[in-house]
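Quick start: read one record
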Amino acid sequence: MFERFTKDARAVVQGAVECAERAKASTVDAEHLLLALLEREGSRGSFALAALGAGERKESVRQALEDARRRAGLSQAETDALAGLGIDVSEIVARVEEAHGVGAMSGGRTDKGRRPGRPGFGRGAKDVLEKALRVAVARRDRHIGDEHILLALTVRPGVPAEVLADHGVTHESLTRVLGGEGEACA
């Protein structure tokens, strides 16, 4: 499948691996793909993010992802649903971090049984990359670009889609910016 990836899409995948390594994560997750997309410049995906205003709010997106990671990957919608049941996720996070240190619920700690080397791809990242292929095929594009990865992140339920939507980046808005055949609108 990677032979169909453009240079920009390959750079996003490589950047996601580097983001996971910096975070000492045991796997590359969908959030790492989004972080890598935020670091890109001069690509179709970065153009789309900038056109929708997320380009100037990169730090806000990063902070929202970090907040979700501290909540053990729970989205804000999941946190709100638990609050409706009387469960205060913020209080649980505070107690766990008081006992075990900041970020204890983030899952970023390395596993004892993990092999040394690069982190593998988690189910979420694999799902996004597979969805990017389906998006490219549906748009009749020959290659998978970073814009397809971005589109895939917006349609897969979870923290990245929620964070993007909170910053004005939805599948519908991306489709408008990128145009019908994958060409960016001027």
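The chain has ten helices and two strands.
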